[in-house]
Amino acid sequence: MFVRVTGEDWTRLGEKAERVAGFIGNRAYMKMTAGHCAALEPRARADGSTDFFCTIYEVRPQICRDLARGSAECAGERVTKMELRPEQVWRKNL
């Protein structure tokens, strides 16, 4: 349970919703792949490092719209979410 997907978000995601989000009980969340959001596609940079590209940027969930990429608020949310999740849950998603 990392990024919550509201009903409005699900509608905005349209046909991409089931690829990147799923339900736990009656709540939807973005799926996680290898420790990151399933909508992020890793891309190699010229310097050999990896950057991530959002494949659903135009229809991303509201929380992703509210938190600027790489901002202090975004980093804080990531740390908070990681601290709230049991270690075995986030470790298997790394």
Write structural notes for this entry.
This protein is of the alpha+beta class and 94 residues long. It has one domain (4-92). The protein has five helices and seven strands. The protein has helices at 7-13, 17-20, 62-66, 72-84, 87-92, and strands spanning 4-5, 21-24, 27-30, 32-33, 36-37, 40-44, 50-54. The strands form three sheets. Strands 1-3-2 form a three-stranded antiparallel beta sheet. Strands 4-5 form a two-stranded antiparallel ribbon. A hairpin with a 2-residue loop joins strand 2 and strand 3 (27-30). The longest helix has 13 residues, at 72-84. The chain starts with a strand and ends with a helix. The model is unreliable at 87-94 (pLDDT under 50).
Cα end-to-end separation: 14 Å
Instruction: Summarize the biggest pleated sheet.
Output: 3 strands, antiparallel
Cα Rg: 14 Å
Content-based structural category: alpha+beta
State the strand order across the main sheet.
1-3-2
Instruction: Give the proportion of residues in helices.
Output: 25-40%
Shape: globular
Low-pLDDT runs of 5+ residues are: 87-94
Give the total of beta strands.
Answer: 7
Q: In what range is the share of β-strand residues? A: 25-35%
Order of helices and strands: EHHEEEEEEHHH
Number of domains: 1
How many helices in DSSP terms?
5
Average predicted local confidence, pLDDT: 82
- Quaternary state reads single chain
